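Dear colleague,

As promised, here are the two records you asked about, laid out in our usual form so they can be pasted straight into your sheet.

NAME FIELD: protein one
SEQUENCE, THEN STRUCTURE:
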Amino acid sequence: MRDAVVLRNEAKRVIDSLSDEKLKVAVDYLRSVQGPKKVAAPKKVATSQDLTAQLKEAEGIMKKAVREKRLDSTVSWEGVRRGV
């Protein structure tokens, strides 16, 4: 834990000494290291029973399609569009 505190303080000192342009680069780098932010779905979407039912139906359709077709076969766009 103490090592982390020392590193954070050192990082802050280095950041404070950077020019504006180098600071922008440092911030971009730190954001990339941090990784993508997780964004929660809005409550209305996350709890939509209609959406849940549609997703389950689509999953069933996909599983059926995989069982019935070889994975390397193709499906015409018109055939897909008719089912929507």
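NAME FIELD: protein two
SEQUENCE, THEN STRUCTURE:
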Amino acid sequence: MQSELRQNRIKKLEEIKALNIDPYPAYAERTNTCQEIINDFDKFKDQKNIIVGRIFLFRPFGKATFAQIGDETGRIQVYFKEENLKKNYDLVRKLDIGDFIQATGTLFLTKTKEKTVQVSNVKLLTKSILPLPEKFHGLKNEEERYRKRYLDLISNKKTFDLFKKRTQFVNSIRSFMQESGFMEVETPTLEHIPGGADATPFVTHHNALDIDLYLRISLELHLKRLIVGGYEKIFEIGKVFRNEGISPQHLQEFTMMEYYWAYATWKDLIGFTENFYTKIINDTFGTLKIKYKDQILDFTTPWKQYDYIELIKDKTGIDLNKANTFEKLIEEIRAKKIEVENVIGYGRLVDNLYKKTVRPSLIQPCFLINQPVAISPLAKKNENNQNTTQRLQVLIAGSELGNGFSELNDPLDQRQRFEQQAKLRKEGDTEAQMMDEDFVEALEYGMPPTAGFGVGIDRLLAILTNSENIRDVIFFPLMRPEKNNLEAKSKPSKYSEVEEVKSMDSVIDRKTAWELLKQNVKTENLIKHCLASEAIMKALAKKLNKPEQAWGITGLVHDLDFDYTKEKPEKHALMTADILNEYEVPEDMIDAIKSHNYENTGITKKTDLDFALSASEQLSGLIVSATLVLPDKKLQSLKPESVLKKMKEKSFARNISREDIQDVEKLGINLDEFVALAIKSMQEINNDLGL
């Protein structure tokens, strides 16, 4: 239908050109905005007015046409009459909703008292080729709203106004900081070592220098270098990037504001932060009482302060002063039957306990203080308790919406904490911070006592505007490319054409792949895991009409380096890529293998092959685990519903990425069908699996 409408508009475009009219002129005139005319109608009533805008309504009645056009300020009715426009009316007949025009005329009131422009001359400014969505009733599909934000802005005044509010909000932040004596600065987006937060970074490559770099995960460490350099009050508003999951409150690319204040402490931040929030909220929304879901958030100061350790003790009965090691804490957690994620290290365990039991209950604006050192690698220790830090967190509606502390400026202490974080990374904690020698060296030159604070602007604004999703307050949130977009068409996957499939199959055959597996993998269970992944991948390929051998081999060799990289998870998949590159394996296959360890490689999943591999290899492990808890421990006895049930049990599936498995639905296969297909494919090779 859209194609037919598009062709009709293209036909009109050619007819307009035949009238010797340029449908895309460079110049336009305007004497007044639409809203100015509406507001001061009597003032402009007796003069010629020129307005511009997009056509939103268009109602032809033979030799007369009523339309509504709008600019950024508002909309107004216009009236075209053939006897007034003469030959110019031929152009009016070829106009459509969505076109931009320039209308010249005088003002009058219709019989229904509607303010209207009687047009004496019309000029086409832009001919639209595609119709606005659903005859301009707006976009209903949420994903389309994010993907085609420009259409959402056109059709939804609430969205349009929300983003004007966002600009007002950010301007208020900037004004408050500048009026408080802070200087705005800019620091690098590309970094040698990412730091300042617990997050997995994105990796990129600098061609000219031939080095890998990271996109920053925080603004912190470079801003502190500027404090070392002599500035005393600085702030930055900028994008940061964290290669983590998407949720209604998380995106990989978001906007932060961070400030650093020399000769101040975390106690100075308390009052300053309260003033900061109340000022920008009142400036933007005109009130300190904000509706969020079924709550009224009251930002009236002073805010309550809660001690981190005491609050956990009140909520769980666990005293972190006593449960001060991983072993002691996990024993307490299990004794109280609290479910937490499977994590590495004491600090991460504490953080998960807090997020599970405490954070959701903190609804009204408040401060959380005295956090343990284990979860605060960049904060000063409290003088009266060396196990806690001089830190504050802002909690609103069960979410962290601000984080600050007295900055650690002891270079020896900082080095020790970085080393502890580096150890956690080696043990598999991809969010632990890296050793930053340059930053430690900067501290060795001396940084004065300093307090710092940061807040995620997008998440805060989403709550203040009662938005369902953080993506609602971001113009163009990152979305997965549509399969039929132009870029996808111009760069087809190596697996999309029969000729290329044959080419791939001739590069590495199954025999060669098996020999590589036997040469590099010595652990019997890992070999079985690779065989199971191969079987599931082949079954998926058959279902999706993809090349079975190519997909199967990808599953078979995806863990070639696992025995080598047990102690170096950041190298996992990268060594496999090096091995396979010697056989000139296509990049699609290499990227799929890298992406199944995306937390460490930074290679995100993009293609069908990527999603299929990560889903298949994760599900194969879950199927084996589900089999081993059966009374007879036989794979042939396993039912799909048993696997689906076990998948929902966090404690049982703690080492399995359920998100990766569920990603198979992006291939057009539902989860039930995928599990059944996977079990059947593994049962068919059970002689090799021995289950």
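A couple of things worth noting about protein two: Residues 76 and 642 are 62 Å apart (CA to CA). The first helix runs from residue 2 to 18.

Best,
R.
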